[in-house]
């Protein structure tokens, strides 16, 4: 059985659906198709920020996501090397400004182990144009990599200027993990490759710096 993350953010893949899979999506989760290794894979994806709950029923494993109350969360300060999940809130000429929602420690098990409490001010992060990808950095156009409302997976590379953490998405597994078309007003898009997402309803494509899902 595939291990599911303990806590998730909107759009985060929880488990892939394989031919002999016994997983079904419950409350707070849904079935989505994502591209991984040039293959279209059906996954159970989180629809909200919360904790993953599994329940056995009629030979199936039902995967649900429930909201996490503020009293059960511990606030963890991001550190250099941490992997974080963040929401892009504003784009400038050379920077993407983000709110950090969750933290995965560099020495952890690959699962998100700290989700920020509801009602608490988020940590802020910045992805500079030179930190978006590892090649052709001088030709990066921010508007072709991120849009406000995108959920990204990034790594903390420094404590920044004292207010914002500096983040990078240069690794293959870092970048946009959840985005909606038409500036957030449309449907959730699927990643075609590392720089293109497509709306499954309209077939229209948009440029993003996509994270490899698995």
From TrEMBL:
Entry's localization field: Nucleus, Nucleolus
Keyword check for Cytoplasm: yes
Annotated GO biological process: exonucleolytic trimming to generate mature 3'-end of 5.8S rRNA from tricistronic rRNA transcript (SSU-rRNA, 5.8S rRNA, LSU-rRNA); mRNA processing; nuclear polyadenylation-dependent rRNA catabolic process; nuclear-transcribed mRNA catabolic process, non-stop decay; TRAMP-dependent tRNA surveillance pathway
Domain of life: Eukaryota
Cellular component GO terms held in the UniProt record: chromatin; cytoplasmic exosome (RNase complex); nuclear exosome (RNase complex); nucleolus
This protein's record includes keyword Cytoplasm: yes
Record-linked SUPFAM superfamilies: Nucleic acid-binding proteins (SSF50249)
Domain named S1 motif: residues: 81-171
A Pfam family assignment: EXOSC1
InterPro entries in UniProt: Csl4 (IPR039771), EXOSC1_C (IPR019495), NA-bd_OB-fold (IPR012340), S1_domain (IPR003029)
Principal localisation: nucleus
GO molecular-function term, one example from the UniProt record: RNA binding
Keywords: Cytoplasm, Exosome
Matches recorded under PROSITE patterns: S1 (PS50126)
Residues spanning the signal sequence: none
Protein name: S1 motif domain-containing protein
Organism, as annotated: Kuraishia capsulata CBS 1993
Lineage: Eukaryota, Fungi, Dikarya, Ascomycota, Saccharomycotina
